[in-house]
Amino acid sequence: MRSKHFRLLCAVTIVLLASMACNLSAPGNAPTATAQVTAQNVPTATEQPLPTASPAGKMTATPQPTTTLTLEPSLTPTVGLPVAQVIKASNCRAGPGGMYDLVLALKVGDTVEVVARDLGGGYVFVKNQNIAAEGCWVLQTNLTISGDLTPLPAFTPLPSPTLAPSFTVKYRTTDTCNGFSFVRFTIVNTGDAAFRSAYIKVTNLKNNEVTQQSVNAFDLTSGCILMDNIAPLGIGQTGYLQSDVFKKGSVKGQKMSAVFQLCTDQDLKGSCATQTLQFVSK
After folding, report:
1. Alpha-carbon distance 95 to 101, whole Å?
2. 228-246 pLDDT, tens digit each
3. In a domain, 1, yes or no
């Protein structure tokens, strides 16, 4: 009996000792207080995605959203070639002058683009209306140009071919000015170069009176009045020449002879052609 009591006492003692051990704090540790935390509305920072590794081992940055901008209209105008309108029927040639081959005939009202200037001869280089890859030269005075030619390049033309100037001449009429008689002639340029000067010598075969003069134009006149100034006389164009005045009275009904020399440069220079003519003045 006493043995059972002894075992019971031992068991109770062990339980008491275990309970005391659980309630004791570990050395150096303070009792732990339970903290109450109240949640606040704090802005959440958004992390940017980190670069991802590409299969080749290079770091590839993740594209960020971009802002689309609306572009304003450009204030710089588009630069184009000057445009020219033909105001006088013109031959557009392989070079700046009547001695070059004809490329294109331009009619009044045609429009062409100006590509370049020459080196001071009064021509411009324009696009061929029929063949876009080609161009030709035309007199600038025969065009009305819209645009500035200053930025255009200045082309050096091809070497000038050998000139073959020629013309035909016909007696036109006998006229008077300030009481003096003179005779007029019609000239047609049938060659491949423009004429810029002429010499004319007319002889009255009845009294051997001679008149002669040199001119740098082929003007049309009536009496003492200038009707049309023609200088130079282009290829295919019609011009006019007149003798100097005869001072020995009227020459109407007289048999006469005339010598004409027309030259491609002023003052009877350049390439020249000569014709003679006999006629009876009327």
Report:
1. 8
2. 999 999 989 999 999 999 9
3. no
